[in-house]
Amino acid sequence: MQLYLKYVSIGFVTFTMMACNPSHQVKLSPIEKLGKKIFFDENLSEPIGQSCATCHTATKGFADRENRAISEGAVIGLFSKRNAPTIAYSAFVPSRYYDKVDSTYVGGLFWDGRVNSLEVQARNPFVNLLEMGNLSDSMLVQKLKKAAYYGDFVALFGKSTSIGKTFDQICDALAAYQRSAEINSFSSKYDAYLDGKVKLSKEEMEGLVLFSDAKRAKCAECHILEADPGAKKVLFTDHTYDNLGIPKNLENPFYQMPKVHNPQGQAFVDFGLGEIVKNENENGKFRVPTLRNIAQTAPYGHNGYFKTLEEIVHFYNVRDLPNQFPVAEYPNTVNTAELGDLKLSLREEKAIVSFMKTLSDGYIVP
């Protein structure tokens, strides 16, 4: 692993953090522009009022606009089971495969890796009754045809009498927008630091050193600091799966959902990847997320258990000490090798958080 730790000779600086939305600097292609219009259209849900951007808001690191642990669906009072992850940088997540060398699954979208492309990922929320709530593909297509931008859609794709083909084209446009530089801007203070345009503060640098230390904080064991082959930039994830030992979130509203949506009620256990690959050895494991924009995307964990960045870093540090946290939601596969008793001081925890705050997009170089 090549870690960039060189100080640049421009001195310590103050900086201004913009909202995570560098759209004013990005020129979108016609299909990306169309995808953006679809992304922000609140008339495509049932009932109307919810868009993709509701749960993936630019100013929140493309996660839930209200920082809710679980996003509410278009139907008031209905909730799905997991925290809405950021869609930023999901364009670089590979299709799911099993790495025989490291004995781990890698890639796949959503927390559990159940789909392998942005196009397929885009379909799911539209017709999920707990999310955007459309009862059929046809319902969505009919709404699209009433949109003010439908002429742009026809100009790009042509008219089609096939509902399935039109739905596919909707997802193609959304996927194009998700691949755009507007969502994947690589415009954080850390990027400016790597480019030699800014210097990290003393605390931020201490956090980076700890973050990369394989014997201390061990963060970079999964949130790697090597450039991704596809992105050519650091993504702060190796796209693998892990059971961090996160406790059950008793505040998760999914436990209260009608039996048609949650037959198990309070007894529900989220098996994550294990349910997808049908292997109990993978139960309780979820894909390692990117840490880009992590300061904006609270709460944290697949179930939103941790309300702040400070809380989840403290959890990594002391999880296995007595009387610290409740037991894991699924205890059998918990990772005890890379977290749980790191023996970091509170000052060191603070430094790590300080470093992670440099990963927010929209940084303006002084």
Descriptive notes:
This protein has 366 residues and is mainly alpha-helical. Helices cover 27% and strands 4% of the residues. The chain has helices spanning 30-39, 52-55, 118-126, 137-145, 150-157, 163-178, 189-194, 202-212, 273-277, 309-318, 346-356, and strands at residues 16-17, 97-99, 104-106, 241-242, 286-287, 363-364. The strands form three sheets. Strands 1-6 form a two-stranded antiparallel sheet. A two-stranded antiparallel ribbon has the order 2-3. It has a two-stranded antiparallel ribbon with strand order 4-5. Helix 1 crosses helix 6 (163-178), helix 3 (118-126) packs across helix 6 and helix 10 packs across helix 11 (346-356). The model is unreliable at 1-24 (pLDDT under 50).
- Envelope shape: globular
Mean pLDDT: 93
Main beta-sheet strand count, sense and barrel state: 2 strands, antiparallel
Percentage beta strand: under 5%
| Sequence stretches where pLDDT stays below 50 over 5 or more residues | 1-24
End-to-end Cα distance: 30 Å
Number of DSSP-assigned strands: 6
> What topology, given as strand order, has the largest sheet?
1-6
User: Count of helices?
Assistant: 11
Secondary-structure element order, N to C: EHHEEHHHHHHEHEHHE
Quaternary organisation:
single chain
Percent range of helical residues: 25-40%
The SS-based structural class is: mainly alpha
Query: What's the gyration radius in Å?
Result: 21 Å
Describe, in short, the structure shown.
By secondary structure, this protein is mainly α. It is built from eleven helices and six strands. The longest helix has 16 residues, at 163-178.
